[in-house]
């Protein structure tokens, strides 16, 4: 069995800069993979800097240990890397008042042969595509999601909330950020999909599977999702990474 990955980010149709950053790597043996998407916030340049700093910090911390970390230690490694990324973000901000409000969401996938750990802070998401079905693996760290969880609103009402994208957790905006980590076992043919909210806001999830079924190649599937969001006039940056186990 081998892992394959593809990723793409686009500025969208209305933004003047791309504040998303992504990175993905697969080991030469094809049995380990690491992917990260960060969606920055904090005004002009601030979000772009925040997402880049955090993705670079996470890749620097995790790539060297990707193939030699025992499975039992992976969640701890991820949390340690998240802390290091937050510290690097704070170092970057120090002495630069124009960056006081910068921060970023994060979604990360660490794949070790058939095992996967998915970590996130904020509303960038992770999904599993298996046997023709789509399952959201992450739960947004937002005020809207918290209201759904406590029964204040129904899931159908989220789209109408003016504050639906207000975050309850993000790197740079949370004093002691701690990612939510989910572990799962992969099956042959499974695909993991990571994305920023530029995709989920512009392209309803029921449209994804019919689109993905048009192309057998992973790079084309990623491009197809991004292009479809742009045709829907995505007003935010759009980023997608897919990892396939086959």
CATH class category: Alpha Beta
The order of strands across the largest sheet is 1-10-9-6-7
Could you give a short account of the major beta sheet?
Answer: 5 strands, antiparallel
The percent range for helix content is 25-40%
- Let me know the average pLDDT: 93
Question: What Rg, in angstroms, do the CA atoms define?
Answer: 17 Å
Which structural class do you get from the secondary structure elements?
Answer: alpha+beta
Taken together, the total number of domains comes to 1
Strand-residue fraction? 25-35%
CATH superfamily: PPM-type phosphatase domain
Shape: globular
Distance between the termini: 5 Å
What's the order of the H and E elements? EEEHHEEEEHEEHHHE
Comma- or semicolon-separated keywords:
alpha+beta; 5-stranded antiparallel sheet
Structural account:
By secondary structure, this protein is of the alpha+beta class. The protein has a single domain, classed as PPM-type phosphatase domain (Phosphatase 2c, domain 1, 4-Layer Sandwich). The strands form two sheets. A five-stranded antiparallel beta sheet has the order 1-10-9-6-7. Strands 2-3-4-5-8 form a five-stranded antiparallel beta sheet, covered by helices on one side. A hairpin with a 5-residue loop joins strand 2 and strand 3. The mean pLDDT is 93.
